[in-house]
Every structure is written in C-alpha cells, then in structure tokens.
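Field: COMPLEX_INPUT
Field: COMPONENT_COUNT = two
Field: RESIDUE_TOTAL = 876
Field: MODE = joint
Values follow.
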Amino acid sequence: MRTLCHDLPAATPGTEVVLEGWVHRRRELARVTFLVLRDRSGLAQVVLPAGRSVPPEETTVRVTGTATATAQAPGGVEVTAATVEALTDDALTPPAELWRPTLDVSLPTLLDHAPVLWRHPAQRAHWELAAASLRGFRGTLDGLGFTEIATPKLVGTATESGSTVFEVDYFGRPAYLAQSPQLYKQQMVGVLERVYEVGPVFRAEPHDTVRHLAEYRSLDVELGFVRDHRDVLAVLREVLAGMVAAVAEREDAVVRAGARLPVVPDEVPVVHFADALALAGAPDDEPDLAPEHERALGAWALAEHGSDFVAVEGYPMAKRPFYTHPWTGAGLEARSARTSTTEGGDERWSNSFDLLFRGLELVTGGQRLHRAADYEAALLARGEDPATHAAYLQAFRHGMPPHGGFAIGLERWVGRLVEAANIREVTPFPRDLHRLAP
Amino acid sequence: MRTLCHDLPAATPGTEVVLEGWVHRRRELARVTFLVLRDRSGLAQVVLPAGRSVPPEETTVRVTGTATATAQAPGGVEVTAATVEALTDDALTPPAELWRPTLDVSLPTLLDHAPVLWRHPAQRAHWELAAASLRGFRGTLDGLGFTEIATPKLVGTATESGSTVFEVDYFGRPAYLAQSPQLYKQQMVGVLERVYEVGPVFRAEPHDTVRHLAEYRSLDVELGFVRDHRDVLAVLREVLAGMVAAVAEREDAVVRAGARLPVVPDEVPVVHFADALALAGAPDDEPDLAPEHERALGAWALAEHGSDFVAVEGYPMAKRPFYTHPWTGAGLEARSARTSTTEGGDERWSNSFDLLFRGLELVTGGQRLHRAADYEAALLARGEDPATHAAYLQAFRHGMPPHGGFAIGLERWVGRLVEAANIREVTPFPRDLHRLAP
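Field: COMPLEX_OUTPUT
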C-alpha cells in the first residue's frame, strides 16, 4: 500500500511505509545518504545507511522504510532504514537542477525541455492553478444553471473574420479551425439558454508578442434573457470570484507559484470607453485601447477603487464583430458612474466590454444582436453575404432571446495571477509563429 | 424578478410572477388561450383571456401573470390573467412541431436544422446527459488526485499513425490536428503523475459509419505508478460509476432522453483477447474484434455476468500502437478468470484493453512502455525513426514511472446510454466525410 508524501506525517512512527515517486534530490554524505522523494502530493525525506547507492535525480523509484518522527524533516516525519528500488534505468541529468528553489532557465530552454522542466514544483504550480481555475469556473456556472457544451473546432467558414484563421485540408476541401465558439454557443443558447464551454481556439496571429498564442484555452460563457451587457458582467463577476476561491483552495500551489491572489470586488468598476481614453491619456478619437492604455487603466482602477479588475464598456461598434449589440445607454445611465455624455441609443458605441486584469485585457464580452433582421442588416453593412451564415441565422429566425456572453483566456488569466512576463511561461506546450514542438 | 418554470409550483398562489422563455405551444380555444412556456428548467402552463394573441411557437416572450393553483397544470400551478410580451419578431415555423412528445424527423433533417430541432426536450436531453457525464468524469478524477490538463491540438507530427490525420497550413508549413492527446498526456504524467483531459480529437476517417466522427470529444486519463493495466481498469471502473451517478442525478433528462442507465459492477468482467475470439465465435487468428464480435461479447457479458460492460485485455501487440506495453501475464494470472493458455510475458499479447459498453467499443486503454530504451526499440521495430519523437522521448530519458491510461469517446457513451442507432443523433454538430455544417 503506497503512502503519498503529504500523508507521511500522518503515518504511525515505527511502521513500514512504501513511497513511490521521482528522486528529487540525492545527497551522499560520509555517514548517511539523503534522498528527497517527489510525488504528485509533495516531497518526503528518506535516509539510507551510508554507502547505499541511490539512482540519479529524476529516476523513478519505490522506497520502503520506517516512518520516523524527526524535527528536521518536512512535516516532522521522514523515512529511515530505507531501501530504494529503481523503476527504470538511471535518468538523464535534467537541463536544470529541479531541486533548487527556483527554476533559473531562459524561456527557450524552458519551452524546449518542457516535459522535464515543468516538473519543478514552482513551474508545475502554474498549471495546478490553471486546473483549479477551471474547477472554479465550471462549479460557479453549474451553480447558476449553466450547461457545459462542446462545439466543433472544424468549421466551414471563418468564424468572425477571415484574416487570422488556419486552413485545414478536410477530405480534399477547405475547412477552418474555429477562432472561437461564438457562433455555436449562441445557437446553443437557443437550446439550453445558459451555456459554457472550455476548449481550444485557434488564431493564426502573425505577430509575435508576450500575450498572444496561436492556440489557447478559451473559457466561453453565453446566456439568454439578459437586459443588456451589465447582466453579463454580473455573471462574469461571479465566475471570477469562483475562480479565485478555487485557486485559493490550492494554497500549496499558490505559494509555490508565488501567485498574488486578487480580491474580486462586489462591483467591478466600470468605465465607458470614451472615459477610458481620457483616463489613459489617449486621444479621444482612438478606436481601441493600446497595451499602454490598458496598463494606465489598470493603475487607475487600483489607485481609485483598490481593484485589480476594471471593465471598459461601450467599445466603438466599428471595432467590434458583426453580432455586437449597439449601445442602449438609457437603461444603463442610472447604474453607471460615467461622466461623459454618451447618451442612450448611440450607434457609435456598443453594449460590449473588455475586462482588464492588472492592466491586461483578460475578457471580451457583451450583449449580442438577437433579431434575425438585425443580423442581416449588420452583415450587409459590413459587406458580408448573410447566405454564408445561413445555418447560424436559422437560430435567430426561429426565435432567440436577448443574450450575451464573454470569453476568458485561460493562459492570460494564469499569467496575470503569477505576474509572468510572457504568457509562454505558464503554457506547457505553447504554439506560435515559430513554435510547433514539443 | 424572473421565476423559472420549475420554480413555479413553489410560487405563492395569487402573487404576480414573471416568466421568460420560448412559446413551446399555443392553443387558441373559443373561450381561452393556452400557452405552454419553455425555459431551461422546464415547461409552464399560461392561461390568457380568449382573443388575446400569442406569438407563434418558438418566439421568445416575457409572461406576466398570477400564479394560480390548479390540478390540471404540471406541478399544480399555472399562470393566469397573463400578458405576453414578445422579445423578438414572430419566429419562423420550425421544421417539426417541437411540442409533440417525440421528435419524428429524419437524421438529415435533424442535422440540417440542429439549432432549432435540438430545442425539443427529448433531443436536448441527450446533451444534458453528456454534460452530466462530464461532471461525473471530472468529479471522480478530482477525488482521486488527478489534475486536469489541456494539451495542444496543433502538432508537428502525426500522433500515432499517419493515415488519418488532418493537415493544417501552419504559417506556411504543415502541421496536423492531434488524433489524441496520448503523447502529451504521457509527458504530463511525468509532471503531475495523474492527469485527465476533455478535448476534441480529430480523425480523418475515410469511412462513413454509424459510430465514427471526424471530430469528437475524448475523455482522456493517464496515471503513473501502476502495476499493470488492471490498475488502469480499476480507475476506469470508478470513472464509469461516477459518470452513471452524475447522469442519474439528472433524472428529468434521463426520462426525457429515454435513457436506460447501466449498473457498473464492482468488478467489470474481463476476458482475454484469445478467449474473446472464442466466445464471439471468431477464428482464433483474427487480429481484432469486428463489430459483430463486439456485439456477441456484449450479449455474453449480459447473459453470464448481468453486466452492460465487458473488458477485453491482451489485444495482439501487432494491432496496438508503438507505446503499448507487452503482456506481463504472470502477475495477472491470479487475478484473471481466463481459461486459455496465454502464460506470462508473452510478446504476442499486450497489457492493453478495450472496454465494450452494450456491445460497442467505448474505451481503449492499457499500460504503456516507460523505459526510453523500450521506446527506441519499439519505434525502430516499426520502421519509425525515434528522432521524429525526440521531444516526447525526452520525458522517458529523464525518468518516467510505469503508467497507463484510457480514452472514452463522449458521443459514443451518450449514444449507448440512449441506445441511438447513429452517433450523429446525440451530436449537435457532427463532422464527417460529408458534413461540415451547421
């Protein structure tokens, strides 16, 4: 019967225990040999008589010995009088010493040797926080009456714009990798009303930045019967709180990753796009927020509201996809602290938002159009033929509720949690312009 | 404040309630108009004065009226003196009457009109069972110390065999869609020891059958420190039990879908491949089980063991992928009820298995090789250059435990639960040789 490292402190002193894991570190001293064993649960200290050989670091082993109380061991119990049986041949020396407190390697080294270097407890913790976040995301939405969906990643037409799609040879004809589940999650709102999906999305991003990947995990949400995008933001607030709470439960991984957990305010501060430009010191005719504007807004939210999060609503329609609902400010006016004069029903602005987390765009969302006629007009206005979206438009012709949703980038979320300089530091096998392996 | 249909029976009679949803059915009688409203939670009966118009079926509406106890209504409460506000233009007539108890349409009609026809309560239930299964899958594995992972779907080399991969134009060079997360989940065993992934897999299957799709959801599991594939089967048994339990919690959807839930036996019956051939009446030199053999074995398991599940272990090495661990029968002999003479350490057979559910292959799994030298030999023996798997082999050179895992096809699982004739009946947007839309 195997004992996990983190259960060793609960073993009765004097009893025999069997541990299995990797040789995290071996230290052969004159009178004694120490072995630190690593398994999925943590580390354990093992003591062998001097002269007893231990396989090199990273070899997998089975350790049999006596649980012994000692103040020097982590958790107060170590394994003594141990015998060590190797489960494989001797492991090759890793490209960095995994037992050191920090993994001090360059980014290319980390990425090239991901299967080995991600074993470092601090590095592995990044993904443990990602997994905890997924659990918090789903748990929150399950509690709010959402149903998980899975929509096709192979699609016949480019989802939202043709510029950044990957083309696939699909039985001799072209298909595309879905840039987002947007059009499908909307259709499933017609079926299940409240839906979410966790899945890969694909962007043939031709630029090489610290915050873009060609494949990433999108946490998508869509819900029917909303008044406007503020109802969507309210669900987003619950989801973020649930994700932070689930991450906090993995306290060991939080510590190993050096993550600083944010507080999700009861009301996330919201500023209108026009005001955001002013706050960020950007010209008032800018059509979008540049990274430096996002950083300035993040700093403002922290200084003014003590919040790591700030939502910017009302993005210019011209910069949003065809399914975006125009601004219906009137109903919002009372709820908003905006100071600018963007009165209700303005076609320049939209009922959409971005949510910034520590000065970086993390979430895009908003209210969508829900009338078939509005879709046809929106597509025609952009020079697109509604016939290419015939299957999608079916849903609207057959009755759809006012609805909206959002998408969170999982890797960006973890990257901001641990304040990584590059999103690739928290992505085990990133895909970008240059990288398709490991 | 909106009341959901399934909460209506709890409303205080005489109070005003607001419901939102789709017009599921309207019936205009001489003295009264009935409207059945559908939302994500169920149906509610609404009564309007005669002559009051109700939008056509599938239009989304907001209903305001008085909660009124009546024996005739489902749940004992209906909404009377109601006013109905349409939230969109009149909906187009659906291609089938969604209010009828069964959705009697051809498969092509169902698939072409998926965004509308999946709204039928019995049809929608298929996906609700899929979602419940996912919850049961993850919940069981979280409880067993597994960590969810997400591995790349864009890969530089074909995963297991070159014959059925989709090629992608990846920034001007070829990439492939992952046929399975196999090679990556193994690498992540080196990092996290016990991992699972729910994600799309892609198979350029050139044949058109009732049980294959070009894109489907694979529920992948991989764990380290196993003795052999029987340890993997034991985890699979727990996972299946967890999935059935989670499905059973959605009793309403089980009833709507007409699903017959299986009992997962404490010990799933296991037969050796050689014995399986004999039981199925197949020639003893068959290298694989044909669909009719699977059906025969399913019938045998039900008759002999009262089990909807049967595992076949020891598949011929020649038919399994390069990473398959050969048969180590000795340790298994005592645990197995086999009658044939496949003694320990036989290189013809493998430590792999298929699990059949109601006579259909649902799961493939087994123990994998874990020594770097074994991988090199296995690849060379198949005429493959180990260098093409350099990144993958890194994990083994740097120390991996004995490990194994399995993969469940989500759509097949739901298909067998509801005993669908074609896997496409339970897949909202199937992808195959002929179909790339909706």
